[in-house]
């Protein structure tokens, strides 16, 4: 099955919620390592679907963690979400998901390699 169809199927599982939704997000996270998966996921609205999960009051902490990990994996940016009791504004809960240090600093290593005279295509193999 082509990557686009697989990502669409997993995204459909993600939006269904529950255990099936969690399994779909786990499959999407694993698929982000494939070429072009990040751009396909982003362009087809995957980040918006994950954002809805992060903003949901009904989603469990594990589900929100998976949604945040998915957005972080697809964008290489940290993600934070917070939910509080709508009636009182209390009982706040914050989830923060940060990309791994290798993902954050790999661009710095490439810039240093290029500045020291390496060819751009060889800098990506750092």
Question: Could you explain how this protein is built, in words?
Answer:
With 126 residues, the protein is mostly helical. The chain has one domain. 63% of the residues lie in helices and 8% in strands. The protein has 7 helices and 2 strands. The chain has helices at residues 3-16, 18-31, 37-43, 46-55, 61-75, 101-115, 120-123, and strands spanning 79-83, 93-97. A two-stranded antiparallel sheet has the order 1-2. Helix 1 (3-16) runs antiparallel to helix 2 and helix 4 (46-55) packs antiparallel against helix 5 (61-75). The longest helix has 15 residues, at 61-75. It is flat and about 60 Å long. 24% of the residues are buried.
Topology, element by element:
Elements lengths: L2 H14 L1 H14 L5 H7 L2 H10 L5 H15 L3 E5 L9 E5 L3 H15 L4 H4 L3
Antiparallel strand pairs: 1-2
Helix pairs in contact: 1-2, 2-5, 4-5
Structure at a glance:
With 126 residues, this protein is mainly alpha-helical.
Provide the low-confidence segments as ranges.
122-126
Radius of gyration, in Å, reads 17 Å
Beginning-to-end CA distance, first to last residue: 32 Å
Q: Which structural class fits the helix and strand makeup?
A: mainly alpha
Globally, the shape reads flat
Can you write the helix and strand succession as a string?
HHHHHEEHH
Strand content: 5-15%
Total number of distinct structural domains: 1
Helical amount: 55-70%
Spatial strand arrangement across the major sheet: 1-2
């Amino acid at each position: 099955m082509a990557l686009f169809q697989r990502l669409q199927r997993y995204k459909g599982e993600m939006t269904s919620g529950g255990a099936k939704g969690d399994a779909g997000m786990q499959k999407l996270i694993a698929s982000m390592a494939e070429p072009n998966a990040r751009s396909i996921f982003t362009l087809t609205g995957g980040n918006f679907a994950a954002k809805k999960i992060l903003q949901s009051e009904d989603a469990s902490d594990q589900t929100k963690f998976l949604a945040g990990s998915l957005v972080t994996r697809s964008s290489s940016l940290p993600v934070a979400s917070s939910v509080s009791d709508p009636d009182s504004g209390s009982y706040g809960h914050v989830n923060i998901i940060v990309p791994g240090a290798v993902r954050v600093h790999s661009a710095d290593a490439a810039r240093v390699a290029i500045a020291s005279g390496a060819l751009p295509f060889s800098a990506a193999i750092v």
